Amino acid sequence: MNYELFIAKRIVAAKEYKSSISSPIIKIAIVAISLGVIIMMIAMATGIGLQQKIREKIAGFNGHIQITNFDNNYSEITLEPVSINQDFYPNFSNISNVKKVQVYATKGGIIRTATDFEGIILKGISKDYDWSFFEEYLVEGNLPDYTKDTSFDVLISKEISNRMHIGVGDEFNILFVKEDPSKTPWLRVVKAVGIYNSGFQDFDENFVIADIRHIQKMNRWKENEVGGFEVLLNDFDEIEEKSNEIYTQTASTLNSQSIIEKYPAIFEWIGLFDNNIYLIIAIMIIVAGINMITALLVLILERTQMIGILKALGSSNVSIRKVFLYNAGYLILKGLFWGNIIGLFLLFAQKYGGFITLDPNTYYVTTVPIYINLKYLVALNLGTLVLCLSMLIIPSIIISKINPAKSIKFE
């Protein structure tokens, strides 16, 4: 029988334990652990959630990896065509983790209405396009259908809709300047069949989604020529590795570029979130550990007579230390329990309620995104429990300094 655990349970269950001098300090320690866990959960869920949401949005507009011609073009506009007759299209058969390969082309244009005009990037896509991203952010209308004849239906953003006063079902003009500015620009009369709102203003204010065949015709490309390929991955964590693999397995005339390479400033910024998460977790564990050390010392000093009796009965210092560590473990688990209950309630409320909003111009999202992962939560709780208990081992050495002869008192 584990008599140390038995004694610890009796101490916890005793009535005088709940009304002792140490009771307020114990409650403060439990509250500190609960608050620490809540803050750590929020920091982890929001930090990782924001990282993932920004990655998803950038990938939604660009794919994870883009394959284009080797040239000095660093703009969003594709200039030189690429033949779709590639070994890797429509699928990379010898590279794992590739979800889809789809074609695209982009061209700069100007939306012109009776009262306004606005520069945009027309992104042409084909029937192989993965619409899952825009399905999530579609707020009005329907997605265009490019599986049949050349379609004049387009998908515009809420940002463009508001600024240009274009609604679902409205037709409007897009002008495209020719290589020779002296010639009359191309004019396309298109119809807005859907409106999306990703909250990523840098993209929303620029991109209009259309049939790629318009760009092929204006650029005088053949039917089998496109601006490039977008590669979608199943696992973002492998993006750099897969980008290198794709680079080595494509023709020497082609270049592959991941979105991390294309938008380094954004990914460096969201990479700093990891440091913030680690710092918050470290601070919260230290604060919780200090509170538990205080509570443990008060418990030991309050029960010096019991410690003296146990020593007189032959208990070793190690066994008595286990009693108090079990006791402290109970307090930590109690704090973790309430911290998880309250923390999960707040996280799910934000996840499905979205009551905390953000400025999309700064954070690229309109509400605080939440990422909840069971493995991360288990690791966070186990790590907190182990580290807090480890911090209590050294303070518990004070038990060995207690003299049974002086501590046992008979009234």
TrEMBL record:
Membrane-spanning parts: 25-50, 277-302, 323-349, 376-399
Cell location: Cell membrane
InterPro entries per UniProt: ABC3_permease_C, Lipoprotein-release_system, MacB_PCD
Keywords: Cell membrane, Membrane, Transmembrane, Transmembrane helix
Domain MacB-like periplasmic core: 28-245
Topology in the lipid bilayer: Multi-pass membrane protein
Pfam families documented for this protein: FtsX, MacB_PCD
Domain ABC3 transporter permease C-terminal: 279-404
Family to which this protein belongs: Belongs to the ABC-4 integral membrane protein family. LolC/E subfamily.
Protein name: ABC transporter permease
Organism: Lutibacter aestuarii
